[in-house]
Specification:
The protein is mostly helical. The chain is built from 3 helices and no strands. The longest helix is centred in the first third of the chain and has 21 residues. The protein is flat.
């Protein structure tokens, strides 16, 4: 399980490096939306999940 998390973090780091190196600043809103969506999916599995439904 630890290697899977490490692999996923490595992909995220590679994506950030790509954006930084090639100056693809237009991708920042897309990346921010993906991070927010991932956070919502993770929070959905916690006891806070039912409290998120009225937000949407």
């Amino acid at each position: 399980m630890g290697t899977q998390v490490g692999d996923r973090l490595a992909v995220s780091g590679d994506l950030v490096t790509l954006v930084w190196r090639h100056k693809l600043w237009w991708m920042l809103p897309l990346l921010l939306a993906l991070v927010v969506l991932a956070a919502l999916v993770v929070l959905e599995a916690t006891p806070l999940g039912p409290l998120l439904y009225p937000v949407f």
